[in-house]
Amino acid sequence: MFTGSGPAVQRKIQSVAMKIYYYRTEQFLSTDLNTAWHFFSAAKNLARITPPDLDFKILTQLEDKDIFPGMLIDYTVRPLFGIPLHWQTEISKIEKPEMFIDKQLKGPYKIWEHTHHFVQKQKGILMKDEVKYQLPFGIIGKMTHSLIVRKKIERIFNYRKEVLNKIFNENGNNID
């Protein structure tokens, strides 16, 4: 039975409802910085490195444009139970060819901010991804994160690592 009230209880409820999560991963790719930038800054390649069961489709006509701050990209994706969701991201920051950030404007998350870093190394690049995200629905979102969402994000990035390893590390650069 819930018996508490007042500022302390309100802070506790707010902290549960406002939980921000981070997912970080790194991968070495046997390529140069410019090739990596060209591949990852082309939104059309996102479908190529996303698990097929998510049925990821880009709605925006991109026509091989370079990304730019303020660029909006619309997608549909089926993250849970095959239900299609509209997702819109904005390219919010670019430091070519080392980093860019995309932020969800519309979609399943309350917050989704994906930072892509590319660090030149002696025999390739180190790609670093950091996703800052928050789920809607307070305590229900927190439970969903523990049961489903975290595992789904890990599976997406694990799939991405496998595909990128095939593209960049196994047989040379097969980016076409």
Description:
- By secondary structure, the chain is α+β, with helices and mostly antiparallel strands.
- The protein has one domain: 2-Layer Sandwich (Alpha-D-Glucose-1,6-Bisphosphate, Chain A, domain 4), CATH 3.30.530.20.
- Helix content is 32%, strand content 33%.
- The protein contains 4 helices and 7 strands.
- It has helices at 7-17, 33-40, 44-48, 138-170, and strands spanning 21-29, 57-58, 72-77, 85-95, 99-106, 111-121, 124-134.
- The chain has a 7-stranded antiparallel β-sheet, with helices on one face.
- Strand 3 (72-77) and strand 4 (85-95) form a beta hairpin.
- Helix 1 (7-17) runs parallel beside helix 4 (138-170).
- It is globular and about 45 Å long.
- The termini are far apart.
- Mean pLDDT is 88; it is low at 9-17.
Q: Please, how many helices? A: 4
Main sheet makeup: 7 strands, antiparallel
* Strand order, largest beta sheet: 1-7-6-5-4-3-2
The CATH level-2 architecture is identified as 2-Layer Sandwich
Q: Which sequence of SSEs, written as H and E, runs from N to C?
A: HEHHEEEEEEH
Total number of distinct structural domains: 1
Mean pLDDT: 88
Instruction: Give the low-pLDDT segments.
Output: 9-17
Please compute the radius of gyration using only Cα atoms: 18 Å
Strand content: 25-35%
- Helix-strand category: alpha+beta
Assembly level: single chain
Query: So what's the overall shape?
Result: globular
Q: What would CATH call the homologous superfamily?
A: START domain
